[in-house]
Amino acid sequence: MLFASDNAATKTRKQQEGEELPTEKQIRERLLARGAESLQDDELLSIIIREGTPSMTALEQARKVLENLGGDIWAVTRLNIKRLRMVEGLGIKKAALIASAFELGRRFAERESSTMSIITGHDDIFRMFKPKLSLLAHEEFWVVYLSSANTVLDKIRISHGGVTSTTADPKIILKKAVELLASAIILVHNHPSGICEPSENDRILTKKIADSAALFDISVHDHVIVTASKCFSFRHEGLV
């Protein structure tokens, strides 16, 4: 914890820069009065960090962490503890707290997404697969099997690939669709690079699966590419 003189110096410096940061007490009071949703990303992270260093407050340290991650708080979850502890000198204890908090959030999001029973669009698919796929350093290809009412019958991982590609065998995909008596399927895979636009191979594979599925009167409703921050929908872009 900073000494009073350090806090005063930090406050004065921020005032000179034209910005007065809220104190830890003010952040906690806003949390209690308005709930966690009222806090900014850096303020939430500062509560997990709890204590700053002799040269910066917990909020300043939180801002430095986010700055190192390009301002994307979700990127925190892609760092293991060994890498996280090195960011702005967090140390093992703070890194462990942050990693645990984000893992709890990820597990909750994954559990919530697993209860989704009806798909109305690509946004539903993004919410379903973001906790599962957006943090991976490799590509995975999944298929969601739907009834005629767009109820989820099952979702299955078809393949586990490398950093830049994965494969999907239409025979395996359609065999399961026939077994489930599915009326439609949605193809899903992730791009660890963060670039969600489809490659030429993605387009070719989608057409190949759609053509094969049509022989069984099964439609490919969509192919959704998932990244940490957004998704690409073939249907939304008029590609299926």
In short:
It contains nine helices and five strands; from the N terminus they run H-H-H-H-H-H-H-E-E-H-E-H-E-E.
* Element order: H for helix, E for strand: HHHHHHHEEHEHEE
Shape: elongated
Strand content: 5-15%
**Major beta sheet, specifics?**
5 strands, mixed
What strand line-up does the widest sheet have? 2-1-3-4-5
Global mean pLDDT: 84
- What is the number of E strands? 5
Characteristics:
alpha+beta, 5 strands, disordered N terminus
Written account of the structure:
This protein has 240 residues and is an alpha+beta fold. The protein contains nine helices and five strands. A five-stranded mixed sheet has the order 2-1-3-4-5, with helices on both faces. Strand 1 and strand 2 form a beta hairpin. It is elongated and about 70 Å long.
Note the topology:
Elements: H1 4-16, H2 24-34, H3 41-49, H4 58-68, H5 81-84, H6 91-114, H7 122-133, E1 140-146, E2 152-160, H8 170-180, E3 184-190, H9 200-214, E4 219-226, E5 231-233
Parallel strand pairs: 3-4
Antiparallel strand pairs: 1-2, 1-3, 4-5
Helix pairs in contact: 3-4, 6-7, 8-9
